[in-house]
């Protein structure tokens, strides 16, 4: 018999710096053998996934305060995911369970040619069926930062719930943080993806994009050209735009200053979740001290901290299991400075 869905919330630390993450949480199935296609994989290992959920766990691991809002199936996988959040001290009062739809599944592999292959089972899955009426409005009103992606914009009713949640958080004074997290396979077409992702672009206060996403969103422009980023992606309401470059680090753009922070070299084992870990590190720092957005020296320190979070995550398999603690990040930074 299935256990009852978890009630209440995970342990919540200092609520004044709460980061509320909205969107999908799912089960990733990863081949037990590296470098094979999904069809060639002899077996699969399951792992918790979903970018917004990864970010929520990442912030909590660092000692921050986080919550997750989203929907899973009223099934064994849904209970498992909610339990993982609770065990990681993420507030789950915004998690809903759907009795009629399953928890989303994704089969993911990194083939020998370096290409990632995705196969999603969402027809529809529970995360797509979150209704506006199911939102935990009190939780949204407590958010210092409200973080989200674009996958929750693809289908109704979740799209309307997403837009309503943004509106509630914004009216309550939250900073809106957006990581588009492009997954073309989930959108009806490339045009729909570009249009959908850009439809809420100008409402965000913080945006994090990768080089590939810049090329896609600008219709093929050079992602390394500052003018492309500033003219096509920076908007008047934006407090911070981050461009991640994997192991090379990241670039940052604000109205007052711009620059880059170099990356951290490690031996990669699995890059899954590295971007989410970076976002966790950055939002943890900003939620702890909002002046980071106006102070370039503080911002550079926060970005280096975030780069280390991302780097440590690629040294282990899986996203959530590999997310670092604050002690691990500080220890790595200490050792890096003494070498």
TrEMBL record:
**A single cellular component GO annotation:** cytosol
What Pfam families does the record point to? PfkB
Top EC category: transferase
Q: In which pathway does it act?
A: Glycan biosynthesis; starch biosynthesis
Q: Which residues form the Carbohydrate kinase PfkB domain?
A: 18-325
State which Enzyme Commission number(s) the record gives: 2.7.1.4
Organism superkingdom: Eukaryota
Nuclease recorded as keyword:
no
The residues forming the signal peptide are none
Q: Which GO terms describe its molecular function?
A: ATP binding; fructokinase activity
Q: Which reaction does it catalyse?
A: D-fructose + ATP = D-fructose 6-phosphate + ADP + H(+)
Q: Which InterPro entries match?
A: Carboh/pur_kinase_PfkB_CS (IPR002173), PfkB_Carbo_kinase (IPR050306), PfkB_dom (IPR011611), Ribo/fructo_kinase (IPR002139), Ribokinase-like (IPR029056)
Give GO terms for biological process: fructose metabolic process
Alphabetically ordered keywords of this record: ATP-binding, Carbohydrate metabolism, Kinase, Nucleotide-binding, Transferase
- Family annotation (PANTHER family): FRUCTOKINASE-7-RELATED, HEXOKINASE FAMILY MEMBER
Per the record, the similarity remark reads: Belongs to the carbohydrate kinase PfkB family.
Function (record text): May play an important role in maintaining the flux of carbon towards starch formation.
What's the protein here called? fructokinase
Organism (species): Acacia crassicarpa (northern wattle)
Q: Lineage of the native species?
A: Eukaryota, Viridiplantae, Streptophyta, Embryophyta, Tracheophyta
């Amino acid at each position: 018999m299935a256990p009852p869905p978890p009630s209440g919330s995970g342990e919540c630390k200092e609520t004044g710096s709460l980061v509320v993450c909205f969107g999908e949480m799912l089960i990733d199935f990863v081949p037990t053998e590296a470098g094979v296609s999904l069809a060639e994989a002899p077996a699969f290992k399951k792992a918790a996934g979903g970018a917004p959920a990864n970010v929520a766990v990442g912030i909590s691991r660092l000692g921050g305060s986080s919550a997750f809002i989203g929907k899973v199936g009223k099934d064994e996988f849904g209970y498992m995911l909610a339990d993982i959040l609770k065990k990681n001290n993420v507030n789950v009062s915004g998690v809903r369970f759907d009795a009629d739809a399953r928890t989303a599944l994704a089969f993911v592999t990194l083939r020998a040619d370096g290409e990632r292959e995705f196969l999603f089972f969402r027809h529809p899955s529970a995360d797509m069926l979150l209704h506006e009426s199911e939102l935990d409005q009190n939780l949204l009103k407590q958010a210092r930062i409200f973080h989200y992606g674009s996958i929750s914009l693809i289908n109704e009713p979740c799209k309307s719930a997403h837009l309503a949640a943004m509106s509630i958080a914004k009216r309550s004074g939250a900073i809106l943080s957006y990581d588009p997290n492009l997954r073309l396979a989930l959108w009806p077409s490339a045009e729909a993806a570009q249009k959908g992702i850009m439809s809420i672009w100008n409402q965000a206060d913080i945006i994090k994009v990768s080089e590939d996403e810049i090329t896609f969103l600008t219709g093929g422009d050079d992602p390394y050209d500052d003018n492309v980023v500033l003219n096509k992606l920076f908007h008047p309401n934006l407090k911070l735009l981050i461009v991640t470059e994997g192991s090379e680090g990241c670039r940052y753009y604000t109205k007052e200053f711009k620059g880059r922070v170099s990356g951290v070299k490690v031996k990669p084992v699995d890059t899954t979740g590295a971007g989410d870990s970076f976002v966790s590190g950055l939002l943890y720092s900003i939620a702890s001290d909002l002046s980071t957005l106006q102070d370039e020296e503080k911002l550079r320190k926060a970005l280096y901290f975030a780069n280390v979070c991302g780097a440590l995550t690629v040294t282990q398999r899986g996203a959530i299991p590999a997310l670092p603690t604050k002690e691990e990040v500080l220890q790595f930074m200490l050792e890096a400075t003494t070498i």
